[in-house]
Amino acid sequence: MKATPLAIPEVVLIEPRVFGDARGFFMETWHARTFAEAGIAARFVQDNHSRSARGVLRGLHYQLRKPQGKLVRVVSGEVFDVAVDLRRRSPSFGRWVGTRLSEDNKRLLWVPPGFAHGFCVLSEHADFLYKCSEFYAPEDERALRWDDPDIGIDWPLDVTPVLSAKDAAAPLLRDAAVYADL
Fold it and tell me: What CATH code is carried by the domain that includes residue 112?
């Protein structure tokens, strides 16, 4: 496994070792010891799977009082995945990093607690899997606007994104609650 910190070093791109032959392939997507050696010592409590069509944009989501770390990957299709630093005391507060995750590149992304997370679907559809370090708490969930000009995410979209009503009504970063103590 190769673990590469991105421009915000707490967000880590994981490139697993893939063993392939004429039958297909095998790879480990989670190994507690190996990931701990790479600085990711999360305890996961929930696995999720979402399927979305081309142009769907989900996010930017986070939980304020029960922050989730997420280990994300795509098993079918391709997405552009984004993490936004919401730790007010961080030197990278309000900055974002993004990368393409796909069934072909088999990469994973570690999005630690303290970050908002979102993705847009670039293929006809995408199956997106993620492990969470905290249980989903709908009463604690928050969202940021996907197109906040102060964050300035360069989404690689060639269509108007399809949003949920919650995401369409999300506040700008300057009006949102963020993490003061992380």
Answer: 2.60.120.10
